[in-house]
Task: structure prediction
Amino acid sequence: MRRPKGIKTKKSVLKRFKITGTGKILRTRAGRRHLLTGKSAKRRRSLGKRALVHKTDEYRVKASLPFSH
Result:
C-alpha cells in the first residue's frame, strides 16, 4: 500500500515515545541524564522505568505518529 502524500511522522516524537499493544503510550522519565550521584539508588532505578503518558496528552502524541495506531 502506498503512503498517503503529505502525512509524515514526527521523528522526534517517534524517538521519545513507544506505543504498547493495547494502544497506551509510554514515555521515559525526566531526570536520568546527569547529576545522578546526588540521587539515591532507589530513585535512579525508578527513573529508569517507563511511565504512561497522561490521557489528556495522548491525542497530541498520536497525531504526530500517524502510522502507529
User: Anything to note?
Assistant: The radius of gyration is 15 Å. Helices lie at 11-16, 41-48, 58-64. The domain at 11-64 is CATH 4.10.410.60 (Factor Xa Inhibitor). Residues 41-48 form the longest helix (8 residues).
